[in-house]
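ASSEMBLY PREDICTION REQUEST
Request ID: AP-0331
Submitted by: J.K., bench scientist
Number of chains: two
Total residues: 631
Priority: normal
Notes: Please return the full assembly, not individual chains.
Input sequences:
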Amino acid sequence: MLWIAWKMLIGNRVKYLGIIFGVVFAALLIAQQSSIFCGLMSLTVSQIRDVEGPGIWVMDKNVQFVDDVKPLADTELFRVKGVAGVEWAVPFYKGIVRARLEEGSYEQMILLGLDDATLVGAPEGLFMGSIAALRTPDAVIMDDAGYRRIWPDEPFRLGRTFEMNDRRAVLVGITRASRTFQSFPIVYTRYSQAVRFAPPERKVLSFILADASPGVPAEEVCRRIEAQTGLQALTRSQFIWKTIRYYLAKTGIPVNFAVTVFLGFLVGTAIAGQTFYLFTVENIRQFGALKAMGTGNGTILAMVLFQALQVGTIGYGVGVGLAALFGWASRNFTKLSFFMPWQVLAITAAAVFVIVLLASLLSIRKVLVVDPAIVFRG
Amino acid sequence: MDERTAATDVAVTPARADVAVRVRGVTKDFGSGDSVARALRGVDLDVPYGEMLMLVGPSGCGKTTLVSIVAGTLEPTAGEVVVLGQDLVAMGNARKVRFRRENVGFVFQAFNLLPALTAAENAAVPLLIAGWSRPRAVEVAAELLDTLGLGDRLAALPSELSGGQQQRVAIARALVHSPRLLVCDEPTSALDAENGRITMELIQQIAVQPDRAVIVVTHDARVYSFADRIASMEDGRIGAVSTGPRRSGPMPS
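STATUS: Completed
Returned structure:
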């Protein structure tokens, strides 16, 4: 009987495509907007992800997210180093500075200061210059997207200079780095140099990067650091989620995306539901004939649900495929963030399932209550 | 009633053991309260096995309501309905669905073929409902369609068939699972005279069997000649049951 349901469904091409269009529209919008939202959220934590090595981030207890820098006294570094279970701890500067370019214009930049001795947190994607060159005076490494932003249409070239806080910076390397939420150029330098590039402040230590001794869980070390120093200590993963939760709770970004996703859901449900209902109404005599000939309500219900799942599956596949195609096609447009984790696929699938279920509800009611005697009426 | 078929005005009540359909005191109301409409007003009717009974009468007289009740697709308001030895009034809905699936064949006025299925697939639907495998069901249906002269149209969609051919597919669909009661609702009203005659001949030749009863609802006087008996309905009642020309001898010219 499911075969008959399928034949009935594809028998009316216009309505069949109409229902699928509704589901595709919803799946596309939900998957695409959710992926852009995930992309945006991943931008907010890109600097945490890009700092390879440390498993623990230590910061002021009032820090709410990665860009919410509340500087610490330099002495806090030694207190953290003294906590049992801390294998190593290094200073890390993070701030936004204003740079004066050679031609006299100004540009905001994200300045990252790495530990002078170890250079922990140095960029992994260096493709021009060397990390070791950071040890030379005034040396900085810049991300490629930032370079293109400052010097568009110019080839990558080392040795370029600019000023931060009236101090000369020399470009000694260019690296690939994840884009940031602010989209500012990222400049890496040594910690001792970073505090000179930054405007003078009484406290300058943004974060302490640390790692747990072998065999000691990072969470346990974080607990000990917090108990002993009064600072906030988070594992890398905890810090990532704390930052994401901040953006979810304190900005209008999720609401804006949720509104769009909800509209997609609503419009998709309306289109699919209306077309599916019309399809059912058009076939109501056929359903009545099947009931008259001895098809039970359970089978009729299964047929309608099967039809709904058919269009749902196809619509989901096409919609998510189009969303993925959109993400792939726009991967080189650096201003668009697009990240489609499996959770987006799962959420979209759940939404599509609800859409086809809602869309079929009216139809199910219609076919279940249809009097088989309808077939005797002219 | 057509004068050619008005042989007698006496009800022909067969012996009870031979009765396929037994209806007693059946009423049917539609609506409720002040807006209630009484479609049947105490109908008594017997249809023996091996007989083709025609229900005739003007539009709105209750023919379709009565045949719907006999076929088990509509509940009577009151009365007794025993079909093929089964009390339909006492029967639960699930059993009634199974009863229809196994025992009743339908030929509808509007054919009600599934437009997306081929002729063979349409004729196979009752077997598919009964759980047969699709290839076997279509094969059996194809054999029956071949008997009905549609062997070369098995793969045609209903939209590719003439009205007469569609009705033949509908007849095949009604008979493919060998039902013991065949209910035909205005089987010729959508057909021209020639196709109407062919359709009735097919029903008579193939459907009318000693172990089967056939009820035909019609107001097409041209087909009265195929009836064993004719029950004339008026205003929700059976006015007269007369012997049809098939039993009463050759029709006067």
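REVIEWER COMMENTS: Chain A has two domains: 2-44+252-376, 73-230.
SIGN-OFF: pending second reviewer
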